[in-house]
Amino acid sequence: MKSRFNVLKSVYENTVFRRAVLSLLSLLGLSLIIFTLARIVPGDPARMALGPRAPEEIVQKYREMLHLNEPIYVQYYYWLTNLFQGKLGISLTSFREVSVDIAEFLPATLELMLFVAIIQIAGTLILGTLSGSKPGSILDGALRVFTYVGICVPAFVWGLILQFIFSYVVGVFPATERLSPGITVPRITGLVTVDALATGNFRAFVDALWHLILPSLALALGAMAQEARILRSAMVENINKDYVLTLLSHGIPGYRIYFKYALKPSVASTIPVIGLDIASLIANAFMVEVIFNWPGISKFGITAMLKKDLNGIVGVVLMAGLIYTVTNVIVDLILTIIDPRLRYGEK
Fold first, then answer.
1. Which of 59, 154, 175, 211 is deepest in the core (most CB within 10 A)?
2. What is the CATH number of the domain that holds 166?
3. Domain extent at residue 238
4. Is residue 77 part of a domain?
5. Exposed (0-12), middle (13-18) or buried (19+): which is 47, by Cβ within 10 Å?
């Protein structure tokens, strides 16, 4: 019995397991809050679902089917039971299961988030390192001005600017949609670039990449500017530490010191911000998805809000919470790998 308890204790003390349990508890609490808010919003969900002209007896039967006449904790029990079965109710926007809508629209947003993350991380490392390795230089001043502008301008404004310049003036990139007219890709994963590669359609793959550039840049520029400033500050602080000065006094090239010895501890303070910015894309991308007519989950969520689609809103919020939770776990694991002090501290 004691040995079994020790085994359970060692499993619980495992970082991944502990954070996964805490993440599940957070999602459960989020579901309770969202469900309660959806139920206390003014308006009858049954009447909203069936319309103002539906007969009262039909509305009453629908209300009984949704257990709306029961106490709220009983409603939550039935809703949570359906949730574990993959059922989130019928959407008033599409009149389908919300889980079906999420399965259809989520891959487009995930694909966009993936390319935004690539641009964001690459731009942050390049701008932050160049600016932080030469503080006070002309290059540092120019990059700091760029980061100020990037932080101040919202993502949807960047989208309009990029769309106007590169789609309508220059005509290099497409303005809307995920693929050009006449190009189709069989749906396998819902990620157009992945599906195009899986089917050997390289023309569609290049076309999908071309459509991803402008919305990805619009979403990445603001966060990239903020993260580059954080990385620059950390770089400036670290290159003035004793161990860096000692390396410089031994004649080790500056670029090697900056990229090998100063960048790694500087990135540790930037990774949590990068993770949160990437996770927040599902909530912040709706205006960009509307501007570029991108059929993603964020656009579906804003449509559900405008139509007071409670089931759709709950589904989108839960999906956003799940992405936040998974991203936080990944960020914690990356920090544990990069910074040995965290591993030793946990031990």
1. 211
2. 1.10.3720.10
3. 100-306
4. no
5. middle
pLDDT, averaged across the chain: 79
The tokens describing 202, both together, are 């390289």
Better-predicted residue by pLDDT, 65 or 99: 99
Residue 24 domain-assigned (yes or no): no
- What percent of the chain clears pLDDT 70, i.e. is strictly above it? 88
What global pTM score does this model have? Answer: 0.80
8-12, 123-127, 147-151 — which is least confidently predicted?
Answer: 8-12
Q: Is 88:314 a contact under the CB 8 Å cutoff?
A: yes
- Tell me the C-alpha distance between 49 and 59, whole Å: 9
SS3 298: helix
Reported confidence tier of residue 27, pLDDT bands at 50, 70, 90: confident
Measured in degrees and rounded to the nearest 5, phi and psi for residue 90 equal: -90, 135
Distance CA 286, CA 155 (A): 10
Number of domains into which the chain is organized: 1
- Gap between the Cα atoms of 229 and 128, Å rounded: 6
Q: Answer yes or no: is 269 within a domain.
A: yes
Which one is predicted more confidently, 108 or 46?
Answer: 108
Nearest Cα to 132, choosing from 266, 268, 275? Answer: 266
Structural domain includes residue 123: yes
